[in-house]
Amino acid sequence: MPERSTLLRVEHLRKIYESATGDVEAIGDISFTMNAGELVCVVGPSGCGKTTLLKCLAGLLPPTSGLVEMDGSPVRGPSPAMAVVFQEYGRSLYPWLTVRGNVELPLRHKKLSRAERDTLVTDAIEAVGLPHAARSHPWQLSGGMQQRVAIARAIAYQPEVLIMDEPFAAVDAQTRADLEDLVRELHTTRRISTVFVTHDIDESVYLGERVLVLSNSPTRVQEDLAIDLPPERDQLTTRALRRFTELRTHVYDQIQRAKLGQVAPQSAR
Ligand SMILES: Nc1ncnc2c1ncn2[C@@H]1O[C@H](COP(=O)(O)OP(=O)(O)OP(=O)(O)O)[C@@H](O)[C@H]1O
C-alpha cells in the first residue's frame, strides 16, 4: 500500500481572544498532523476550544501564534482547499434556492464549465441519497435531509479537507446514526480527508481512524488515539464489539482526566 502523505500540519497553535472584558486563551499549545485520506475525530471537555481549532484550521480565524499548514503551505485565510459543515444546517442553506441551487452555489467561484458543474452537483446529490429532492427547497426537507444537502455542497466542492463541527448535534438519534453511516461511506468510497468535531464519545470512536482528545484550558492534545476497529463498520456489530467498548471507556476516562487537569495519558491496550 502506498504511504500516506502529510496533508495538514498544526504546530504549536495558540489562540487568545482579546476583548474589553479580558483575554480568553481558547487554545494553549496544539500540535498534530493529519495524513491525506484520514478521518480524525476531535473530542474534549465543553469549552476547551474545539470550534476555535476548526476555525483556525479552515483559515476563518488567525492564530495568535503557531502554524497551520496545508500541503506544505501556511493557511493564512479562508482556504479553497477546505469545506466546512456546521451544526446549524438551517442557517447554512439558502431558503430561496433549491437543493441543486444550494449545492451548486460555491462551485460558481471555481473555473468550471457548465457541464462539469452539473456533473459534480448531480454526483454529490446522489452520494448523499437525495436525487428525489433535488428540486425541493430546504424548508421542505427534514433536519437530517437538510444536513445531507450541506454535506453534498461540501463534497461537490471537492475539498482537500472536509471539516465538520458537531454536524449531527441537532438531529434525532436515528437520523444521526444514518448520517454517521453516510460519513463513513463517503470516507471509505472517496477517501475524503475529514476532521470531525463531536461532543459524543461513542460517535468519535465509531467514525474515527484516530481520536484527538483535547485537554481543558490551556488546551493541548491530551491524547492522539488510533482507533483499531475494522474499517467496515455498522451500527449494530461495531458498537457491540468488545474493542469498541474498551475504546469508548478509554476516551471517556481521558476526558474525565482532562477535566481534572490530569494530562498523562493511559494506554488503551
Ligand atoms: N469570539 C470569542 N470571543 C471571546 N471568547 C471566545 C470567543 N469564541 C469562543 N470563546 C471562548 O473560547 C473558549 C473556547 O471556545 P470554543 O467554542 O472554541 O470551545 P468548544 O470546545 O467548541 O466549546 P463547546 O464544546 O461548548 O462547543 C471558551 O472559553 C469560549 O468562551
Automatic annotation (TrEMBL):
Residues 8-241 form the ABC transporter domain. The keyword Transport applies. The keyword Transport applies. It comes from the Bacteria. InterPro entries: AAA+_ATPase, ABC_transporter-like_ATP-bd, ABC_transporter-like_CS, ABC_transporter_ATP-bind, P-loop_NTPase. It comes from Plantactinospora alkalitolerans. GO terms for molecular function: ATP binding. SUPFAM superfamilies: P-loop containing nucleoside triphosphate hydrolases (SSF52540). Pfam families: ABC_tran. Keywords: ATP-binding, Nucleotide-binding, Transport. This is ABC transporter ATP-binding protein.
